[in-house]
Each structure stands twice: as C-alpha cells, then as structure tokens.
Design brief:
This protein is an alpha/beta fold. It has 3 domains: 67 residues, Beta Barrel (OB fold (Dihydrolipoamide Acetyltransferase, E2P)); 181 residues, Rossmann fold (3-Layer(aba) Sandwich); 142 residues, OB fold (Dihydrolipoamide Acetyltransferase, E2P) (Beta Barrel). The chain contains 10 helices and 22 strands. The strands form 4 sheets. It has an 8-stranded mixed sheet with strand order 6-21-22-20-19-16-17-18, sandwiched between helices. Strands 9-8-7-10-11-12-13 form a 7-stranded mixed sheet. A 5-stranded mixed beta barrel has the order 1-2-3-5-4.
Length: 450
C-alpha cells in the first residue's frame, strides 16, 4: 500500500480517456497528468482515491520522443490544454486508443475509425471566457481560472484564440484600470466585473462582447464603451449580463444590450445563423461542419423522410439536414434557443422545419402515443449523455435510424449498451478532434433498428 508524499518510480502504461497517465506500482494504480505512454518517471503520491492514487511528476527520467515543448508559458498552470506537450499527430492516435480501450472495457464491439484532425489545430475557439482580479501590487489582471481553483492565471495571448479576441480582452483590462472599475472578488463578494465573454463569427467576422457584472449599475459605462469601440470598431454588439448569484455559472438570466443588435451572425454549412450570448454554438466551426456532413451522410437520406432533431439548440444541424428530407422536427427545452432557431429558419427561408419547446423525451412519448411517424433521429445530448426516459421514448417511436453525436464517448458508449437492449445496434464509431490539444474528442455513431 502506498502512502501520501511517498516517491515512486515506474513506466507509464497508457493514458485514460481524460488524458491522465496510468502508472502501475505492484497492484496499485497511480494517475499522473502531463505524461506520455512509455515514459519512465518519478512521482510523488498526492492523495488516495477510489481507483488508486493521484501523483505529481517529480522527474521524467526517460522522456518520450513524442514529447514537445509546449508553445505556451502557462499551459501547466492553466490546465486547459492537456495535450499541448504532445506532437499533434500523436494526440489523435492517443485519443483513438483511449476510445478503443473504453469500448473493450465496456464490451462494445465497435470499429473505431481514425480521428479526423485539423490542418491547423490552433486559433479554433470562437468563444472565449476570461476572468479578472488584482495581483499583489494591485494591478488588474485578466486570464483563466487555474484548474480546480478560483485563482486567475494571467495571460496576454492564447494560441487557441483568435488574436483579435485576445486584444479586446487586454483592452478591457486596461480600461478597468483606467476607469477604476473593480473586478469581482468571489470570496468577498465585492466588485463589479465578473467575466468577459467574447464570441466571433468565423465566416462573418462579427464579434460580440458580453460584460458579466455582479450588479445592474455599471459606472462610467458610456465612456467605457466609447473607448472600447474606438480601439475595436470591429465589435458588432456589446451586452451587459447581470449575474448577482453566488455561483460558478458564468451568465445570469438578465441582460441589457449596450451597443448593436444584441446578437452576431455566422455562416455554417452554407446557412446563416443568428447567435445570442447564451446560444449553444459549436466552439470549433470547421470541425463542426465536417461533423454535420458526416451525420447526414450516415443517415443515407432519400428525401422523403421525417427527421427528428433532438436537443436541437438553435437548430443548426436540423436546418442543414432540411434540404435532404421531407420534414424536420426540432425539439429543445431551452425557450431562448427555440426562439433563435425559429428566427434562423425564417432567415434562411427553410419552410420544412418546425421547432417544439419541450423535453425531448416527453415530446417523443407524446408523438408515439399519437402514432406520429418519424423515420430518423439525430441526437446531440449534453456531456452527461442521454436518459433512460429519452432512449425508451426513441424505442416507442421506432425510427429506423438514429445518429448519436457526443462530446463524451464514455457516456455515449454507456447509452449505446442500453440502446442495444432496445433493439438499436451500432457497428462503427467516427471521431472528430473538436478540441485540439485537450483530451476531449467528439464522436458520432449510426444506430439501426434490428
């Protein structure tokens, strides 16, 4: 049995689905971040967990030839880019291997395809969230929260962001200092500015700035906006979001449009979409297009089908699929997203799509009771996966094909096992690198009713 603060050494066997290295010490497993398979390392035991132990690297005795110098000074402190120390081509292989291991552990006989990566795996994030605080000298700093903490790690340039968005963040930091606007202090629950959220339309270049404040009054806001827009005329809209709750959730429920129309537009798969501050819109535009095209390709649509788009958000994938089917029914529980989806359909003149604001499972149960026919379903649930209620509703509705998109292969494979009990079977799993330099991978699978 190992003990806390003990130094152990060994060779990293593999990485799990979270990108954590697994070190076998006799019968114990030690989980270590920022390592690569095959590396000989020395580790300090930090704590005991259910699965074994957590350790931190003391020294890498024999590094992997695939290890590279991360192109970021704060990568280890920030913790967002788990794989930045790994050659990109090998990142894709690691992700595939982790999914294969997961399938084997869960006894799911799926053929896992190679991960579809990016030609340029940088500057892909079209949404940025930055926090603010003061350093020991009293200067305003901006950055990301350190992993598993509320401490701000200052930064000026992130390789995953568009350079324009980072410049806007730094301008806001300087304006806070100039206008003596206090960053919000979570511990003392004092201050004004909690976060800044920036969204950029990749094709249109539209930029939205959301100032998340802890109170309704924003002192000196007119001069603040004047100076911000003078330096960044490319900004299309600025919104104040008010979040007075004691919470780690970034956005509150109340908003005021301070400048512009209150939304931005972007083009995805040839369609134009209006995006609000709280709309779900895939962070990686180019990989999203590739993913959606694969989803429609897998369904092999003939043009006379009724397609149900579950968890449809602002209707992106359903509207893309609309030209391939007779009718699309989008179901989404978020009423703001449904309003956006309806507006987007009107704007794109898509007449064979309609949206229902309801829980997807409840909606499908009702459709089954009314004996409403649906030929195919596309589902893209949150990271936690689907629910028994939803999956049984699919079974009652009896569509011939179901395409399941997921940002968590672990919960997806769990759900595929349940779907198999209901008569839906899958053969292949396709992977897309939606979040380069992280352990995350997007997966998509076609299930057919047997």
């Amino acid at each position: 049995m190992l003990r806390v603060d003990q130094i152990v050494k060994g060779s990293v066997e593999q990485l799990d689905v979270h990108g954590t290295g697994i070190l076998a010490i006799n019968r114990d497993r030690v989980y270590v971040a920022d390592v690569l398979p095959g590396e000989s390392i020395r580790v300090k035991i930090v704590k005991k967990i259910k699965e074994g132990y957590v350790g931190t690297v003391v020294q890498i005795d024999v590094p992997s030839p695939l290890r590279i110098e991360p192109p970021c000074k704060i990568s280890k402190m920030c913790g967002s880019c788990h794989y930045l120390h790994i050659d990109y081509a090998h990142q894709l292989k690691i992700k595939k291997k982790a999914v294969i291991s997961l399938c084997m552990e869960e006894h799911m006989p799926l053929h896992v395809h190679d991960v579809i990566g990016m030609k340029d795996p940088y500057a892909y994030r079209n949404k940025i969230i930055a926090g603010f605080s003061r350093d020991k000298k009293g200067a305003v700093v901006t950055g990301f929260y350190e992993e598993h903490s509320h401490r701000i790690i200052p930064y000026e340039r992130c390789r995953m962001h568009d350079a324009v968005c980072d410049r806007i963040i730094q301008t806001i930091r300087r304006l806070l200092q100039a206008y003596r606007i206090e960053p919000y202090d979570e511990d003392r629950r004092k201050g004004i500015l909690r976060h800044v959220l920036i969204r950029k339309g990749v094709v249109t270049g539209n930029i939205m700035v959301v100032l998340v404040t802890a109170q309704k009054v924003f002192p000196g806001v007119r001069n603040f906006l004047r100076d911000l827009l003078k330096e960044h005329p490319e900004i299309r809209t600025i919104i104040q979001n008010i979040n007075m709750r004691k919470t780690s959730v970034v956005l509150g429920n109340e908003e005021k449009v301070l400048y512009g129309p209150g939304y931005i537009e972007d083009v995805l798969c040839g369609l134009r979409f209006g995006i609000s501050s709280r709309s779900f819109y895939q962070i990686n535009h180019d990989q999203c297009e590739a993913l959606y095209k694969k989803a429609v390709e897998l369904l092999q649509l003939k043009g006379n089908e009724v397609l149900l788009d579950a968890y449809c958000g602002i209707g992106t994938i359903g509207m893309y699929a609309a030209s391939h089917v007779k009718e699309v029914i989008g179901v989404e529980s978020n009423k703001d997203a449904v309003k956006d989806a309806q507006a987007n359909a009107r704007y794109n003149r898509i007449k064979n799509i309609r949206f229902i604001c309801d829980d997807a499972g409840s909606c499908m149960v009702g459709m089954a009771q009314r004996k409403q026919h649906v030929d195919a379903v596309i589902m893209d649930p949150p990271r936690s996966g689907s629910t028994v209620k939803f999956m049984e509703a699919v079974s009652r509705l009896k569509p011939g094909k179901v395409v399941y998109i997921s940002c968590s292969p672990k919960t997806q494979i769990r759900d595929l096992k349940y779907f198999a009990k209901l008569g839906y079977h899958a053969k292949e799993l396709f992977l897309f690198d939606m979040f380069p330099h992280t352990y995350h991978v997007e997966s998509i699978v076609l299930m057919v009713m047997k």
